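User: I'm preparing a small set of examples for a lab meeting where we compare how different chains pack in three dimensions. I only have the primary sequence for this one, and I'd like the structure in C-alpha coordinate form so I can line it up with the others. Please keep the answer compact; I'll paste it straight into my notes.
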Amino acid sequence: MKYIFDTNILIYFVEQQSGVEKYFTESFLLENEIITSPVIRIEILSYAEITKEEKLKIEGILSVFRVEEINRELEDIAIHFRKEHKLKLGDAIIAATAFQHSATLVTNNTKDFKNISEIRIESPMRGK
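Assistant: Understood. Below is the C-alpha coordinate output for the 128-residue chain.
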Protein backbone atom coordinates (compact mmCIF):
# COMPACT_ATOMS: atom_id res chain seq x y z
CA MET A 1 0.00 0.00 0.00
CA LYS A 2 1.11 3.59 -0.60
CA TYR A 3 1.21 6.19 2.15
CA ILE A 4 2.13 9.84 2.49
CA PHE A 5 2.77 11.20 5.98
CA ASP A 6 1.57 14.69 6.80
CA THR A 7 4.12 16.95 8.47
CA ASN A 8 2.51 16.50 11.90
CA ILE A 9 3.13 12.74 11.78
CA LEU A 10 6.85 13.37 11.27
CA ILE A 11 6.85 15.84 14.16
CA TYR A 12 5.19 13.23 16.41
CA PHE A 13 7.77 10.67 15.27
CA VAL A 14 10.68 12.97 16.13
CA GLU A 15 9.10 13.86 19.48
CA GLN A 16 8.49 10.13 20.14
CA GLN A 17 4.79 10.65 20.80
CA SER A 18 2.76 7.49 21.09
CA GLY A 19 0.36 6.57 18.34
CA VAL A 20 2.64 6.94 15.33
CA GLU A 21 5.28 4.33 16.09
CA LYS A 22 3.62 1.62 13.92
CA TYR A 23 4.26 3.75 10.83
CA PHE A 24 8.01 3.81 11.47
CA THR A 25 8.65 0.16 12.24
CA GLU A 26 10.98 -1.68 9.92
CA SER A 27 8.23 -4.07 8.85
CA PHE A 28 5.78 -1.24 8.00
CA LEU A 29 8.41 0.64 6.00
CA LEU A 30 9.43 -2.52 4.11
CA GLU A 31 5.88 -3.68 3.39
CA ASN A 32 4.55 -0.32 2.20
CA GLU A 33 5.64 2.39 -0.18
CA ILE A 34 6.05 5.74 1.55
CA ILE A 35 6.09 8.81 -0.64
CA THR A 36 6.69 12.41 0.29
CA SER A 37 6.52 15.86 -1.23
CA PRO A 38 9.08 18.66 -1.21
CA VAL A 39 6.52 20.75 0.69
CA ILE A 40 6.63 18.30 3.62
CA ARG A 41 10.42 18.58 3.85
CA ILE A 42 10.15 22.37 3.71
CA GLU A 43 7.44 22.47 6.38
CA ILE A 44 9.16 20.19 8.85
CA LEU A 45 12.71 21.48 8.46
CA SER A 46 11.49 25.05 8.91
CA TYR A 47 9.71 24.10 12.15
CA ALA A 48 10.94 26.73 14.63
CA GLU A 49 11.81 24.44 17.53
CA ILE A 50 13.72 21.79 15.60
CA THR A 51 17.08 20.85 17.10
CA LYS A 52 20.17 19.76 15.19
CA GLU A 53 19.63 16.15 16.35
CA GLU A 54 15.97 16.22 15.28
CA LYS A 55 16.96 17.63 11.89
CA LEU A 56 19.33 14.70 11.37
CA LYS A 57 16.63 12.23 12.40
CA ILE A 58 14.13 13.82 10.01
CA GLU A 59 16.61 13.87 7.12
CA GLY A 60 17.35 10.20 7.83
CA ILE A 61 13.72 9.10 7.72
CA LEU A 62 12.91 11.27 4.69
CA SER A 63 15.81 9.68 2.81
CA VAL A 64 13.98 6.32 2.77
CA PHE A 65 10.80 7.85 1.30
CA ARG A 66 10.31 8.38 -2.42
CA VAL A 67 10.10 12.09 -3.23
CA GLU A 68 7.32 12.95 -5.68
CA GLU A 69 8.17 16.16 -7.45
CA ILE A 70 5.60 18.83 -8.13
CA ASN A 71 4.49 18.72 -11.76
CA ARG A 72 1.79 20.52 -13.77
CA GLU A 73 -0.84 17.82 -13.15
CA LEU A 74 -0.21 17.99 -9.40
CA GLU A 75 -0.39 21.79 -9.53
CA ASP A 76 -3.81 21.58 -11.20
CA ILE A 77 -5.10 19.13 -8.61
CA ALA A 78 -3.75 21.32 -5.79
CA ILE A 79 -5.43 24.37 -7.32
CA HIS A 80 -8.72 22.48 -7.44
CA PHE A 81 -8.40 21.28 -3.81
CA ARG A 82 -7.33 24.72 -2.61
CA LYS A 83 -10.28 26.46 -4.27
CA GLU A 84 -12.88 23.79 -3.60
CA HIS A 85 -11.93 23.03 0.02
CA LYS A 86 -10.28 26.31 1.10
CA LEU A 87 -7.01 24.55 1.97
CA LYS A 88 -3.73 26.23 2.81
CA LEU A 89 -1.21 25.90 0.02
CA GLY A 90 0.89 23.24 1.76
CA ASP A 91 -2.15 21.13 2.61
CA ALA A 92 -3.45 21.42 -0.96
CA ILE A 93 -0.12 20.13 -2.34
CA ILE A 94 -0.03 17.27 0.19
CA ALA A 95 -3.64 16.29 -0.62
CA ALA A 96 -2.93 16.52 -4.35
CA THR A 97 0.14 14.30 -3.94
CA ALA A 98 -1.94 11.71 -2.08
CA PHE A 99 -4.58 11.84 -4.81
CA GLN A 100 -2.18 11.75 -7.74
CA HIS A 101 -0.38 8.69 -6.38
CA SER A 102 -3.39 6.90 -4.85
CA ALA A 103 -1.72 7.09 -1.45
CA THR A 104 -3.36 7.11 1.95
CA LEU A 105 -2.71 10.37 3.77
CA VAL A 106 -1.68 9.74 7.37
CA THR A 107 -2.47 12.85 9.42
CA ASN A 108 -3.79 13.99 12.74
CA ASN A 109 -5.09 17.14 11.03
CA THR A 110 -8.18 15.33 9.79
CA LYS A 111 -10.35 18.46 10.01
CA ASP A 112 -8.31 20.10 7.23
CA PHE A 113 -8.81 17.17 4.85
CA LYS A 114 -12.14 15.64 5.95
CA ASN A 115 -14.19 17.05 3.08
CA ILE A 116 -11.91 15.76 0.34
CA SER A 117 -13.69 12.58 -0.68
CA GLU A 118 -11.11 11.89 -3.39
CA ILE A 119 -8.39 10.88 -0.89
CA ARG A 120 -8.10 8.24 1.83
CA ILE A 121 -7.20 9.53 5.27
CA GLU A 122 -5.87 7.61 8.25
CA SER A 123 -5.40 9.15 11.69
CA PRO A 124 -3.22 7.33 14.23
CA MET A 125 -4.59 9.44 17.09
CA ARG A 126 -8.28 8.88 16.26
CA GLY A 127 -10.07 7.92 19.43
CA LYS A 128 -7.30 9.13 21.74
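A couple of notes for your slides: Strands lie at 2-5, 33-36, 66-67, 104-106, 121-122. Residues 72-85 form the longest helix (14 residues).

User: Perfect, thanks.
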